[in-house]
Write a structure and sequence with these properties.
This protein is of the alpha+beta class. The protein has a single domain, classed as Cytochrome p450 (Orthogonal Bundle), CATH 1.10.630.10. Helices cover 49% and strands 12% of the residues. It has helices at residues 17-22, 24-30, 53-62, 71-81, 90-100, 106-110, 113-124, 135-152, 160-179, 191-217, 224-230, 241-272, 274-288, 302-314, 346-350, 369-372, 393-408; strands at 37-42, 45-50, 67-69, 132-134, 321-325, 329-331, 334-336, 341-344, 411-415, 423-426, 428-431, 436-441. It has a five-stranded mixed sheet with strand order 1-2-8-5-3. Helix 4 packs antiparallel against helix 9 (160-179), helix 7 (113-124) packs parallel to helix 17 (393-408) and helix 9 packs across helix 10 (191-217). The longest helix has 32 residues, at 241-272.
């Protein structure tokens, strides 16, 4: 057994920090050449990268009890997410996940399909043929309206732009703090820290208002917040107000950010691949015939789902998953000591030609019923995997498919001339300069009876 995995060459003091922070996505692709388990250095601190589906399965599933949410993520995210299911660990995390999980039961989220289609139609009604749109902003506004309605039975309306700006600030600050060896303590009144605290306060204000409105009504309105407030643990105890806040903010943030990113990349990739776009339009015309999609239509829209899945393979909103060993662990033929930080390289694995031939090509057929069976398990992890797999994965996939089916029947999009599209890690995977697109209204399809 070799004592240590191979490592990329780095600075004697800063290790691989500059490569990681300068272009994280390039680093995630480059680090694969050193093996399925690679040791690298975040400044003076050692870390490991997992670059194979087998080791991802071992870390996330087979030996999941030996890995916790890493302490760095917990410390940095705690001011925003508190002890929500994304950041908590141990028995507390198990209890909270058990309480939150019923909110995403298939029957529960099935009722939200109509809301998703309704808000997509409201958005489209604001556009005109030839409009130049910042499509990532449009998708963020849409998914924020959807999560506000389904989570809180509320509408953010005129606040959408302000909330979006505050969340962008949060993501940028979080990204900067993740890139820093020693982040500035939040009690230091720097301009960044003040902006960060204002953004958190805005989120807290919104959630507190929604919770107060629910308590005033005191009835189950069919939203996710109703499930959170009515949830009881094994001893019959409800969540504290602080815990409701933490879970609600976690769901609000994750529930719109990842789906808006996925849809943004869908529109961009379709604009660059006219054959795939034509197949999508053909399926929608054949199955829907111009009418709005419904939940029961989704099984009959396989290509629509394939488009979404392939977009999330190329541009996974969560580009990596990070864990911390809570004991000495055996991984990839090496012994890693307790406290080791391990990064599961989702972006790198999903672009690895060993598992996805011609990996940089947009090819939705990879996810046809037959071809998907050939993809190694844990080579495709847009929602993570194992016990900590994203609770909202079914919600997100339903929303992405319904929104795509609704809008694509009415509009197609072309990338604005000269506009650069550069993927960038800003906590999630966004486009550095946004995605500016020209909307082209499609000829209306006579609605079939």
């Amino acid at each position: 057994m070799t004592a240590q995995p191979r490592s990329p060459q780095g600075h004697f003091l800063l290790g691989n920090l500059s490569d990681f922070t300068r272009d994280t996505l390039a680093f995630l692709l480059d680090v694969r050449q050193y093996g399925d388990l690679v040791k690298w250095k975040f400044g003076p601190f050692p870390a490991y990268a997992v670059n194979s589906p087998a080791l991802m399965h071992q870390m996330l599933v087979a030996d999941a009890e030996h890995y916790d949410k890493d302490r760095t993520s917990r410390v940095i995210l705690n001011p925003v997410l508190g002890e929500g299911v994304f950041t908590s660990n141990g028995d507390f995390w198990k209890k909270q996940r058990k309480l939150v999980a019923p909110s995403f039961h298939t029957k529960r989220i099935g009722a939200y399909g109509e809301v998703m289609v309704d808000y997509a139609n409201r958005l489209v009604a604001k556009w005109e043929d030839g409009d130049t749109l910042i499509i990532d902003h449009e998708m963020t506004a849409l998914t924020m309206e959807v999560i506000s309605k389904t989570l809180f039975d509320a509408q953010v309306g005129a606040e959408t732009e302000e909330i979006s700006e505050q969340i962008t600030i949060l993501l940028e600050v979080l990204n900067h703090r993740f890139n820093s060896l020693f982040p500035t303590p939040l009690w230091v009144p720097t301009p960044e820290n003040r902006a960060f605290k204002r953004a958190i306060a805005k989120l807290d204000e919104i959630v507190a208002r929604f919770v107060a409105q629910w308590r005033a009504a005191g009835v189950d309105k069919g939203d996710l917040l109703s499930m959170l407030l009515q949830a009881r643990d094994d001893d019959g105890n409800p969540m504290s107000d602080k815990q409701v806040r933490d879970e609600a903010v976690t769901l609000f943030g994750a529930g719109h950010e990842t789906t808006s990113n996925a849809l943004t990349w869908v529109w961009y990739l379709l604009s660059q691949n006219p054959d795939a776009e034509a197949r999508l339009h053909d399926e929608l015309a054949r199955v829907l015939g111009g009418r709005n999609p419904r939940m029961e239509d989704l099984p009959n829209l396989p290509y629509t789902e394939m488009v979404v899945k392939e977009a999330m393979r190329l541009y996974p909103p969560a580009f990596a998953v990070v864990r911390e060993a809570n004991t000495d662990v055996e991984l990839g033929g090496y012994t890693l000591p307790k406290g080791s930080i391990i990064m599961g390289n989702i972006y790198g694995i999903q672009r690895d030609e060993r598992y996805f031939p011609n990996p940089d090509r947009f090819d939705p057929d990879r996810f046809s019923a037959d071809n998907e069976k050939l993809i190694p398990k844990y080579a495709y992890l847009p929602f993570g995997g194992g016990p900590r797999v994203c609770l909202g994965n079914a919600f997100a996939m339903m929303e992405a498919r319904l929104v795509l089916a609704t809008i694509a029947q009415k509009y197609s999009f072309a990338l604005a001339p000269g506009h650069p599209v550069i993927p960038q890690r800003v906590f999630t995977l966004r486009a550095k300069h946004g995605v500016k697109m020209v909307a082209h209204q499609r000829e209306a399809i006579p609605v079939l009876a």
